Amino acid sequence: MNNSARTSARTRGRPRGNPPTRESIVSAARALFLERGYRRTTLRAVAEAAGVDPALIAYHFGSKRGLFADVMQFQCANALAVDEVLGGEPATLPDRLIDAVTDLWEDADFRQLTTQGDEAAEALREYLEHELLARLVEFLGGPDATARATAVVTILGGLIYTRYLNPLPTLATLTPAETRHVLTPALRTALAPRPRTVATTRAASRIS
After folding, report:
1. Which sign, positive or negative, has the C-alpha torsion 139, 76, 17, 126?
2. Can you give the pTM of this predicted structure?
3. Tell me: the pLDDT tens digits for 99-128?
4. Cα separation of 20 and 64, whole Å?
């Protein structure tokens, strides 16, 4: 199996496979990416810090880009805790989604990681699409689950972009509580089941 195939086959989120080894590599890589930045961090340095052979990193992660993606995914998985967010009272799910995103982005280390080029943006997109969106579709169920989940992730992605990545002055000055107050009604609407019409049926079929 080549590196690209191995990378695409890897499971995102919390490191799996051989957890102690993968977690030690991800932990060492996270510290070095924060200290040196993406470009100045080498796989050899990560291997030395983790106490493993560099070939083992290539085997598990495929490349430095793949390793950085796993560092970002691990940060997201720890902070967003999808199981906990989805496991509470349905009525307060919009609040928990907003709190999870703002908690993640208020973390200084995570925000530093997100400034490290296209690799960070790609990893974040992958998490939103393949972890959060997929889990929301499964959680919501029903014929309109994909459309509802897509609406939710679109709102959260817009929050991330306009508050953190390319902040609008008005939104950037809001506290997390104020952000929740502003966006919760929109999320509640996005999560609500929709009446079936010809238009929504066509839209759902295009998305799926």
Report:
1. positive
2. 0.71
3. 888 888 888 888 888 888 788 888 888 888
4. 19
